[in-house]
């Protein structure tokens, strides 16, 4: 368990620094609002652009998730994971300071009516980058596997050149043994693995299931995607806005990976390392 003393002093900002960077948390700087609170764009004195996430005072997610996010992201340094620059606290306000990612979220690019249709090569690249971020959390992170627990397109930010960045680690938890653990059911409906939704059982395969749903959404451009893979041919799965401008082999790789990731039995789902190799065409089968 992380105590307040464990929060890294080297990552601490003064409240006045963040206040100044965001023009006193002005409406003009507001990027968005969610259950956790508000996100503001800002600029530090050295010119670095930031996104400051201010947790609502009465947020149900509370200080525990604030600490979790700081602790997890201080270990998770990877090109497909949003970098946490630091944090500050003032009375009952908790602020997380991230690098600013300029190109909105994958959710916006896939589902917002104002977004241009996301080109196929970008969808394929985002699938691989997201898989690599999850592989890092599950298999390569110093300190042991981390389960994200809230993988969905709105938690995948996109850079100016469409590199995906995993964000929002408030629900993340360390995996301390090989055994699945039971926990309170948190996360977002539609992305919850059956064993998690039914009885709160969490493992790294919980994230794999959610990634499978994201793959289906990347392929189809549809928000509700769980049952698509069972009922449709490959050419029917594809986002109709794409026309014929997609790569048939890459479509096969993504749909085959999705099919394996959303298996109802978690033991039959592949690891994220296997998923990356398969999506990149370096392996032609999953071991499970």
UniProtKB/TrEMBL annotation:
The keyword Transferase applies. Keywords: ATP-binding, Kinase, Nucleotide-binding, Serine/threonine-protein kinase, Transferase. ATP binds at residue 53. Gene3D superfamilies: Phosphorylase Kinase, domain 1, Transferase(Phosphotransferase) domain 1. It catalyses: L-threonyl-[protein] + ATP = O-phospho-L-threonyl-[protein] + ADP + H(+); L-seryl-[protein] + ATP = O-phospho-L-seryl-[protein] + ADP + H(+). PROSITE patterns: PROTEIN_KINASE_ATP, PROTEIN_KINASE_DOM, PROTEIN_KINASE_TYR. One of its GO terms (molecular function) is ATP binding. InterPro entries: Kinase-like_dom_sf (IPR011009), Prot_kinase_dom (IPR000719), Protein_kinase_ATP_BS (IPR017441), Ser-Thr/Tyr_kinase_cat_dom (IPR001245), Tyr_kinase_AS (IPR008266). It comes from the Eukaryota. The keyword Transferase applies. Its EC number is 2.7.11.1. It is an enzyme of class 2 (transferase). Residues 25-287 form the Protein kinase domain. This is non-specific serine/threonine protein kinase. It comes from Punica granatum.
